[in-house]
Amino acid sequence: MSDTYWRHKNVFITGCTGILGSWLTMHLVEKGVNAIGLIRDLVPMSNLNWSGFHTRINVVRGTLSDYELLLRTLNEYEVDTIFHLAAQTIVTIANRSPLSTFESNIKGTWNLLEAARQTETVRRVVVASSDKAYGEHDRLPYKEDFPLQGRHPYDVSKSCVDLLAQSYYYTYGMPIGIIRCGNIYGGGDLNFNRVIPGTIRSLYDHEPPVIRSDGTPERDYIYVKDAVEAYLTLARFLDQDEIRGQAFNFSNEKPITVLNLVQKIVEIYGETDLYPKILGKGKQKGEIQSQYLSSEKARKFLKWKTTYSMDKGLRETIDWYRAFFDHQNMSLG
Predict the structure, then answer these.
(1) Catalytic residue at 221?
(2) Which of 53, 72, 100, 289 is deepest in the core (most CB within 10 A)?
(3) pTM of this prediction exceeds 0.85
């Protein structure tokens, strides 16, 4: 497809300060998009701010719970495309504070979808679901026709987001596409209780990385630049009627245990004398032991595939955090 596809389009991005949202926003701006970002909290060291791209977008301050704000934004900016990424994404926070997670993830999604339904200029809506929307299944890898059966608060919220998006397609014919990704990693993730940024920060500080589980949970991971391309690809394909309303998995299809992942990061970083501290014993409450996706459908219908190996993605990620931490240390004097 033409490289000018995105030029001059009015694109609304929720969650534009997060890891995926920041890289997606930066990529779209470089393609000539008129980007509009919904920002709730000012995070000075977010990737969007640190890169300087926050000065190159239209910023709308507010939350997904404000329906009138969303409706005004979509209409006044004559939004053509919506990428709905904003969510409370931390499982431990969801378990501790389910109501705020449901408010943000579920109510926020129905507010945005209803505002989009009432806006004539909207041509495509890409909704971020998650591999967690599937809940736990005995068969692996997960495929798009598996039931959505989240049981714990975060998983339930993503099952609901997914079903809401499907409802707005089947009931109103809205041009919606749904993305279910594995674990996204890369520079810009400031949630250091996640295994990859947390491990890199420990290594930077010359401390042993900490594994909260027993190290055996198995997941798949997708580098953020591959995830960005997945979102852009599905958005473009929503111009085709037969793609609308469908969900697609995106994954590197190479699951790895938490312990093996941490050991790989340690090796690439070069701090091989630091051994992980494993805190957990047995299965963790609220966590699924093995969960990973098949991307066969995306390869077949969208011609999408990953371009980054895990080693290459981790090297770029480590380089980003080294520069980030160096900058922080210099700022502290």
Answers:
(1) no
(2) 53
(3) yes
